[in-house]
């Protein structure tokens, strides 16, 4: 019972070809998962309006953790908040 050693000859071309493709194998799996990660990040934002009427994207966590100053706001205080700071009647 002799143990036969198998001499597998790998040419330089094959060795270089395999070594150059190895880094791309990892990137192929990460590129496939990238749209799913991007979708999860997009779900974490809410579009809201500022007092100036501009649309901004705000994190859901920031809205949930926001401090509520007045729960029931009067119409007059809402109009004062919506009125621009440099606006005079």
| Distance separating the two termini | 105 Å
Approximately how much helix is present in the residues?
40-55%
How many structural domains? 2
Strand content: 5-15%
Please state the structural category: mainly alpha
The total count of helices amounts to 3
Detailed description of the structure:
The structure is a single chain. This protein folds into 2 domains: 10-43, no CATH class; 45-89, no CATH class. It has a two-stranded antiparallel ribbon. A hairpin with a 5-residue loop joins strand 1 and strand 2 (55-59). The N and C termini lie far apart (105 Å). It has 3 helices and 2 strands, in the order αββαα. The protein is rod-shaped, with a radius of gyration of 30 Å. It is 49% helix and 11% strand. By secondary structure, the chain is mainly alpha-helical.
What key attributes describe this structure?
89 residues; two-stranded antiparallel ribbon; 11% strand; rod-shaped
Task: Offer a quick outline of the entry.
The chain is mainly alpha-helical and 89 residues long. It has helices at residues 12-42, 60-64, 75-82; strands at 45-49, 55-59.
Fold blueprint:
Layout: H1 12-42, E1 45-49, E2 55-59, H2 60-64, H3 75-82
Antiparallel strand pairs: 1-2
